[in-house]
Amino acid sequence: MTTLYQKRVREDNLRKVLRFIHRMGSTSRPAITQELHLSPATVASLVAELEECGLVQEDGLGKSRGGRKPAILRFNAEWAWVVAAKVGVTRVRVGLANLKGELKGKRVEPLASRNPKDVVCQITRMVSMLLEELPHPRILGMGVCCPGVIDRETGEVLKAVNLGWENVPLKSLLAEHSPWPVFVEDGADAGALGEKWFGSGQDVENLVYVVVGNGIGSGIILHGELYTGQQHVAGEFGHTSIDFSGPLCPCGNRGCLELYASARALVQKVEEALRQGEKTLIRNLLEEGRNLTAELVSEAAYLGDSFALQVLEETGTLLGRAIGNLVNLFDPELVVIGGGLSLAHPVFFESLATTVKAQSLLLHRRPVAVRKAFFGGDSELVGAAALTVERVFGERVPIL
Ligand SMILES: [Zn+2]
Question: Is residue 400 part of a domain?
Fold first, then answer.
């Protein structure tokens, strides 16, 4: 008779085997036996269980290390999918991803309202539309990321300055509408992990991810691990002050970086110049009935407008100076720039990267690399999907 204790040990081992195969992508029974210090008979029986449900599949024969060639075991990333969502200051993105965090489809809409309950309804509606387009019989969980200070355990948004949120129980609000387990993540942290696991940062151990949209945030990975600080506040880069007597920021501090170098700051700078009578193609584009956004400024820059090019360069240089401080503080191998502004005319990214490197204290030795996010505006979505898979597999084996 199987005792409760034996059952728990088996579940625990099954979880370890699944996590190992998931992490490796493909492996073999002898490799699992060796790595997890389990007996060959135990591994054979646990793998049989995972094969039976389809989570793991045999795929040809591997190299022999003496004796028979072992069967290759491959993780079946399509066995189930996860839902990911990102709440931004102006947009909501939702996506469906497989168990490797690969996006299968996504929807992007303008954020309709900042009221938390409306945001939850919008996410729920967008997810159902996406699932109607791309149905999958098995959804394991939903990961939602948003900017600000998040308590990952309770799923509460403690403070999101740009959304005007304080102590919003996002996880419980979403759980009322979601048939799946819900996890809430910090947007910049999810982006950093998405880039570290699958994107620009796969070959480095120390990475700073900076997301530049209407706000500015950062995710910091040190020695391969996310650094979140003692109360999840680490990485609130947009609210570091660059002018102690500057204008008041909604966060309560003065002269925050976000007020000078974000997409919103760039738009405000352009608005001010237009009021002063600046001659620029932006004015012509606005006369065609377009809205003044960072994308519009970038479009004018592509048309050769010298004012648009100048504003983008100034913003890139300013942000580069601030990131230079981060580089001298953490000494990472790589800085990854994500968010909407990273997709602007190249003059923005080039002036940013040049300034970061010029500020590096040991430039002549091994300069820090500065890259654009591999996933563009989707890094957070990819990270949220991957974190959801990690969390589900960490808590339970989905077949039990
Ligand atoms: Zn601030």
Answer: no
Q: Residue 220's pLDDT is what?
A: 94
Cα gap 94→87, rounded to integer Å? 9
Burial 25-41 (b: 16+ CB within 10 A, else e): eebbbbbbbeeeebeee
Kindly state the tokens that stand for 283: 């004015």
380 CA to middle of ligand 1, Å?
22
Task: Write down the pTM of the prediction.
Answer: 0.85
Return the structure tokens found at 305: 């407008």
Domain-embedded: residue 309: yes
Confidence band for 24, pLDDT divided at 50, 70 and 90: confident
**What's at 92, amino acid-wise?**
V
**Which CATH number does the domain housing residue 357 bear?**
3.30.420.40
Is residue 137 one of the residues assigned to a domain? yes
Q: Report CA(236)–ligand 1 centroid distance (Å).
A: 9
CA of 256 to the centre of ligand 1 (A): 5
Tell me, yes or no, whether 351 and 213 share the same domain: yes
Q: Which domain holds residue 277?
A: 200-373
Same domain (yes/no): 220, 121: no
Distances (CA, A) of 116 to 121, 122, 214: 9, 10, 19
Residues 355, 385: Cα–Cα separation, whole Å:
33
CA distances from 137 to 81, 87, 99, 127 (A): 9, 26, 14, 14
The answer to whether residue 195 sits within a structural domain is no
- Indicate whether 212 and 105 sit together in one domain: no
Q: How far is CA 175 from the centre of its chain?
A: 21
Q: How many domains does the chain have?
A: 3
Quote the percentage of the chain above a pLDDT of 90. Answer: 65
Measured in angstroms, how far is the CA atom of residue 341 from the centroid of ligand 1?
A: 19
Per-residue model confidence (pLDDT) at position 197: 85
